[in-house]
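thoughts on both lines:
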Amino acid sequence: MFNKTLFAALLMGSLHLAGHAAPAADSPLAQVEALFAWERSASWDSTLLRKQGMLAAYQSLRPWVQSSKSRLQELSEAELRALFKLMDLLGWSVGGNEYADLMQALVGEFEARGATDLKQLEETLAINLVALRRFDEVRALHQRKPHLAIEFLPPVLDQSRALAPGYRIYQPDAKTQSLRLLDVVSSPELRVYVVGTIACGFSRKASDAIEAHPELKARMASSSLWFDSAVGRLYFKDVLSWNASHPATQLNYVVSEDDWPFIDSWATPTFYFVKNGRLVQKVQGWPDNKTGVERLLKAFAAAESAAS
């Protein structure tokens, strides 16, 4: 049986040995600051390890967070801000509705106290809600407060239909200015799943180089699926323009990162070569066009010769 307590202890011990000591037991405010300093100094081999490390480090603060939920009015300004900052960090590094839910409650308390930076706090909340694909709540917030700098969020078609567990994406639709919720059917044939984002210059360079290379363009057009991670900005209009000029490397969005268990890193760009549901090759990064193209061609050759 998997022992979470033992795992957390072992993980924190390993981080300490690696020079990334866990935050010391101290006051909650000091612990929050120590956690942020520790997070900035730590390096992670994968997104999963980062998530596990953050959750393990958070355990000492969890009792304070849980007890604070029902007494926000009693907290000092410094405690409220530390709590909001912590939930924001956990929201983008770990992900989960519980952190955004508490951020919503905190924004309400900040508003009741007349916080001068309420607009910034609300916009930070909106980014977290977008990452969780809670689009309706973001639209409702923007409707109540149209002065907030919140990007256009397209409607989602087929949102109500039930999808089987598995890979899911939102596909941008230029004609309807919407997102289509789609199943990605697993195939015994070689598929290349690419984590990329229009906000990443290396992703754009990789896409441009592939589109300019006849062999790679043909291979990617027939076998690849590109998508952004569950981040807090869609850049929908920019993605539509990008897709119109990049037919072989069109960008989509994941619904949830949890749908893609074989993806151990959401760093961009990363190319996952999957055959018959099994990861057979992985190419990460884009140092330059010549090297990147060579790596992809080698990965295609190795993946195609790999046993199913």
Q: What stands out?
A: Confidence is low (pLDDT under 50) at residues 1-24. Strands lie at 156-157, 168-173, 178-183, 190-195, 224-228, 251-254, 270-275, 278-284. Residues 4-144 form one domain. The radius of gyration is 21 Å.
